[in-house]
């Protein structure tokens, strides 16, 4: 079994930052990369902020926070992830981009190192085919926010070997997560269920069935969901939701997965949810 000491995280956005956070807290050394050093550092600054809130709430000691942050090293780009034993790619949900990044990870990391993707919908088999080590490529789908959400969905590509799957499962458990395993099918298990719900909420909104608040309150108090589908979409990122819906629609070929126009228009306007302070809701005043 691969001995994992150093975890490389590619993409320092909300998910990559969260993965770096939980990995450092669990005692792993972390290398964090994004498009450039500044973006990786901005990702680390957000981890610092998140951990400081945990300290203020008494959930983490100042010493543990400092020790965890000291284990996270920001690097220039994917090439800086070379010393990692295990890499998790968490860059923007885009097939061509991820294919390119898997090629680059394959070139940067030593033979035998595992390459995982946090993709929400893209085929792991397809990403593995970009590398010289398809048997060492696996899906490791964390939930948002990573330090809080307990689930990791593992995806075996067609060629993923047992050792890779078992090492990834053991890592997820060490990070304090509960694991489910999905076949390599568009959207896997979680987003196969979630995205049609978010899409339908968008159709309800654009057809004027009710306001965003009505729709979300309906789901929360009527279905006992902790968050409504529109506020959850804002948390995930509307660009990410649209990208997943488009993969589901294209790959599964069923119109039930088509995205509502209101989602597409919000993305076109740059209203991507909480990360841009505007999505289905306006967060600038909240
Ligand atoms: P995000 O927009 O917060 O972050 C994406 C990051 O990728 C950005 O920092 C961006 O600069 C970086 N990036 C873009 N091109 C890059 C490149 N060429 N090299 C290195 N970094 C690059 O998005 P996110 O929400 O963190 O999503 C990242 C991945 O995680 C996606 O695949 C998404 O589907 C998946 N995911 C998202 C959620 C969610 O709720 N948002 C949940 C599970 C999985």
Automatic annotation (TrEMBL):
Domain 3-hydroxyacyl-CoA dehydrogenase NAD binding: 6-184
Residue span, 3-hydroxyacyl-CoA dehydrogenase C-terminal domain: 187-283
Keyword terms of this UniProt record: NAD, Oxidoreductase
Gene Ontology MF terms in the entry: NAD+ binding; oxidoreductase activity, acting on the CH-OH group of donors, NAD or NADP as acceptor
Pfam families attached to this UniProt entry: 3HCDH (PF00725), 3HCDH_N (PF02737)
InterPro entries, per the entry: 3-OHacyl-CoA_DH, 3-OHacyl-CoA_DH_NAD-bd, 3HC_DH_C, 6-PGluconate_DH-like_C_sf, 6PGD_dom2, NAD(P)-bd_dom_sf
UniProt key word NAD: yes
Gene Ontology terms describing biological process: fatty acid metabolic process
Residue sites binding NAD(+) per the record: 11-16, 34, 93, 98, 120, 144, 275
Residues with site note (Important for catalytic activity): 141
Gene3D superfamilies: N-(1-d-carboxylethyl)-l-norvaline Dehydrogenase, domain 2, NAD(P)-binding Rossmann-like Domain
Top-level taxon of origin: Bacteria
Protein name: 3-hydroxybutyryl-CoA dehydrogenase
Native source species: Plesiocystis pacifica SIR-1
Lineage of the species this protein comes from: Bacteria, Pseudomonadati, Myxococcota, Polyangia, Nannocystales
């Amino acid at each position: 079994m691969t001995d994992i000491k150093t975890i490389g995280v590619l993409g320092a956005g909300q998910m990559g930052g969260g993965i770096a956070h939980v990995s450092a807290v669990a005692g792993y050394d972390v290398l964090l990369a994004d498009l450039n050093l500044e973006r990786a550092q901005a990702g680390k600054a957000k981890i610092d902020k998140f951990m400081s809130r945990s300290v203020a709430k008494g959930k983490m000691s100042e010493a543990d926070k400092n020790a965890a942050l000291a284990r996270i090293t920001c690097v220039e780009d994917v090439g800086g992830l070379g010393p990692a034993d295990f890499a998790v790619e968490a860059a923007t949900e885009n097939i061509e981009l991820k294919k390119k990044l898997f090629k680059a990870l394959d070139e940067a990391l030593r033979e035998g190192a595992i390459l995982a993707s946090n993709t929400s919908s893209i085929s792991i088999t397809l990403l593995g085919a970009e590398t010289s080590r398809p048997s060492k490529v696996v899906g490791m789908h964390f939930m948002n926010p990573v330090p809080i959400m307990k689930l990791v969905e593992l995806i075996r590509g067609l060629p993923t070997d047992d050792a890779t799957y078992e090492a990834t499962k053991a890592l997820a458990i060490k990070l304090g997560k509960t694991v489910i395993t999905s076949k390599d099918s568009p959207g896997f298990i979680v987003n196969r269920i979630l995205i049609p719900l978010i899409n339908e909420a968008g159709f309800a909104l654009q057809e004027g069935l009710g306001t965003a608040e009505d729709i979300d309150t309906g789901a929360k108090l009527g279905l006992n969901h902790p968050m409504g589908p529109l506020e959850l979409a804002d948390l995930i990122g509307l660009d990410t939701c649209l990208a997943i819906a488009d993969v589901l629609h294209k790959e599964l070929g069923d119109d039930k997965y088509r995205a509502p126009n209101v989602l597409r228009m919000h993305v076109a306007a740059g209203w991507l949810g909480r990360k841009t302070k505007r999505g289905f809701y306006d967060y600038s005043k909240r």
